[in-house]
Specification:
Chain lengths: ~270, ~425
Amino acid sequence: MTEILLFKGTALLYLLAMGAFFIYLVLLKDVYARVAPFILLAGFVLHTAGLASQIARNGFPVVTDLHEALSVYSWLIVGIYLLVQVKYRLTVLGCFVAPLAFLMALAGLAVGPGGGELPPGLRTSWLYIHVTLAFLGNAVFALAFAVSLMYLVQESRLKTKRMTALYKLLPSLERLDRLNYTFLVWGFPLMTLGIITGSLWAGFYWGAYWSWDPRYIASVITWLLYAALLQGRITAGWRGKRAATLTIVGFVVVLGYFLWGDAVFPSRHAGNFE
Amino acid sequence: MSVHRDIIIVGLNHRTAPIEVRESVAVEASLVPAALRTIRNLRSVHESAVLSTCNRVEVVAATSERDTAFMEVKRFLLDQQSAFGEKVVEEHLYAYAGGEAVRHLFRVAASLDSMVVGEPQILGQLKAYYSAAQEAGSVGAILHRLFHRSFTVAKRVRTETGIASRAVSIGSVAVELAKRIFDRLEDKTVMLIGAGKMGHLVARQLKSGGVSSLMVTNRTFETAVETAAEFQGNPIRFEELHRYLKLADLVVGCAAAPDFLLKREAVDETLRERKHEAMFFIDLGDRRNFDPRINALSNVYLYDIDDLQTVAQENLNGRAGEVDKAERIVDEEVESFLGWLDSLDQVPTIVALKERLEAIRRNEIEKSLRTSLKELSEKDRRAIDDMTSAIIGKILHGPISHLKRPLDGEEEALYVEALRKLFSLDEK
């Protein structure tokens, strides 16, 4: 019961934070820019408490259904954003993160706690490591996605020379591009390790490291895309608009699979463990 | 008999004409004296001055035949160029006369008509063109007064309104944009091409915005060396521009060149050498220095003066209140100038002069008759009255008949002005 209350409180605080960020966008008053991240932080604290109680109840930290997946995912995104905010003061990014976190929290509440029963055979530390890494990687790429969107908006403003209030709000292209790179450098190893641990775990549990499962295929496509981007950035000076566009494409593939994949292409990943 | 004094302004500016048309009509600084000679030979123009900056080309003239002067000055401007059809250029021309013309010049001086309202350069430019006209001998009493009033208006607007303190010049717009492209300017390098004033101004702003490293190039290497010394930058030989271009994050062009200094292909090549690190081109040339197609390359941003104006416009919105205040100052000054202009008419001046002397005469007679000449009879008093009247009549005869002779507008204005000053006719 308390868990549900905690998650409801989380959603409410994320909603409030979203409101504060949007008011900041419209009024451009610094007060809101200062307050909004704190509201988000308060939500994050409740969220953490909720997740902790969930783990205490289940005895294992794992995401067995969409509800828990969304919950953990939004928790990670908010957490990473708060770190970025401390380091780079990128309040505008919060305008993207807060609504995302709210929507995910809301969706999680709507879906409701599923029958999150994990077959005892799956309860290996490999699985925890795999899930943690994969989710962290994806959360980092979600922020890279947001930063890339901002880059494209700012870039088109500067190219077309049509300046709106937004242009003053958004950080410089160089900073957005550098953040994109930072996220890529952090996200890519996390994703790589996530895939490797997942594959190893699959090897242990199912006896095959690879199968033509849609989830695997989507992961590998995204991994190849990000690998190419990283390689291009380091050697050929791919940057700016091209890097931003590729980041967005990569994330859309992941997100698309995450949200609809299981429904469209049945997979034994996620909730289907038979 | 009285010559009606009028002021006209014909020209075009950044609001009415695109940069290409402005360029085609522009009068180069070295050709200003010749242009003034041509204008002085126009039958209808008594006094004249030319104003030619990147943002405006205008002829200010004192005339007594408004319509003829409009036609003749227009013709002069149209003859300045051949790049466009006359119809095209004529469409962009504006023509003001009387109070409208005075208001226009005051607004220009006060930087209310500038691309970036409140920017300070225009006043200096106006002063320079005024001196040029003075040296060429084409300024008389009317334009002299007009320009000096305009300088006063500019000063009042500067001190009495917040326009100047919050002025956003083209330079700071450029800095603002640079800060949207680059995270910090401290580690960026500027390449300044050409010796144009605007280029210097923007370079200075970029330096105070944080840019530490600056390269300067010019067709004349000595000029590059001088400019580089001024900015503590490095002079680059013009032939080596392409070699050094890859080091530049910001490129400011303010050269007087008939052709593009940098074509798209050259910039494309440079970008590859820079691994596509972003470049910001600022084109301040009277004619375009950079190929406009450069802007289509990715990671490259090209802004010319017109673009900077658009951005500056955004910054303006918040300053409407100060602009209103400035406009009211201009209104006041226009009123007072027009009053002066009217006073230059000989008839009122003659009347005023007569009244003045008459007042003195009466005053003195009354004083004397009350004191030392108290004993005089009525007859004697009348005799004194007649005599003093005659003296004044004789004194005035020369000046008045001189004024009543047909004079050209400028000479007449000169005498009228002198009389009004010498006899303090404007003091009540």
